[in-house]
Amino acid sequence: MNVGDRVRLLTGTEEGIITRLLDSELVEVAIDNDFTIPVLRRELVPVAAEEGQAFRRPVPEVARPATGSKKNKPQGGQPKAQRPGVPPAAGATRPQSGGPSAAMPPRPAPASPPPPAAKGLYLALVHQAPELLALHLLNNTEAEVVFTYGEERQGKYRALAADKLKPKAASAALAHLHLKDFEQWPAVVFQLLNFKLNADTAYDLLTKRQSFKASTFYTSRRPAPVIGKEAYLFQLDEKPAPALSPEKLAQAEAALEAAHEAAANPTPALGAKQAKVLQQALGGDKPAPVPAAIAPAPPQPAAALIAPPHEVDLHIEALRPEGAEGLSNTAMLRQQLDAFEDTLSRALATNMHEIIFIHGAGNGTLRKEIHRQLSRNKDIKFFEEAQKEKFGYGATLVRLK
After folding, report:
1. Which stretches of the chain drop beneath a pLDDT of 70?
2. Which of 22, 113, 136, 290 is least surrounded by Cβ atoms within 10 Å, i.e. has the fewest?
3. CA–CA separation, 139 vs 261, rounded Å?
4. pLDDT at 95
């Protein structure tokens, strides 16, 4: 199963589209383009395109040309169109020349085609369904491009994809976004590196962060290059990456070597030499500081590790005092799993013997994911349902080694 596949739930009749691969066994599915839920792969089955045509979705009738049936005869006593070379029927009046009925209605002038998109790299959001958009990278240049893709939420970056695009090519769907969640969309971050075989110029890495605002998003829809579809289009290389000259690369290498020598032999004479080389390489009025990797700051003492409580409540209300408002099902599940993983690691680090995770019954998705991770952890002796008379099947007791 891949992102964009249409699937059906084995335990129901709902169908949806896979919008994200959460891990090796869990995916995010958009049900009827309305809401998303995390579902285990083994609980899904792909839906073939032929199935919709043969069983469930009848093909709409195609308009047929007019025939001699009564349905196609003109109503209200209006005369039929006269075929050329056939005299009019008796009693039929021929339209007067120059009258309004004699003149044919003017044909509308064909719309001028939109101007072709300029060469460059584009972010394109294409409708995969009325409320679902697929995010692609378009390479409308003559060079190959190596890229990375990530998302930024609340100041935290997460790398999600990396690949290479050939000239005049489009990437696979990198993400799927719902219009109903527009206010919660993350900012996307691309790192782009152009490359052309046997070219005489090297280019610097181009980093582009793109956030979405309603005032500019809905006016950005136009024909997209490469794919030939309507899309919400954003150019990523309005400011092209600067070319790297061999002289600047050699100067940067010399500056780095001087910094290494200064770190190994901190003498006054060498320090002055290092400052001079760095000043020449960077073209500034004052010497640049030694890179942090060469002269690292003293390490900060690690914070004391605190053991978690014996019973840990993973309900979203316990983790977020403000409640689950504004969170999707996927975001709630991810926050609960992050809390579980952090608590388990602290319990192991502080040599706890056992701990109880209260996850609730619900639809069982959180419970299954917790049990799956516990079964793969070598530091777990065993786990079982905890205090059924108190929690039912909504809590798990974990015995640690």
Report:
1. 32-35, 49-117, 262-304
2. 113
3. 43
4. 45
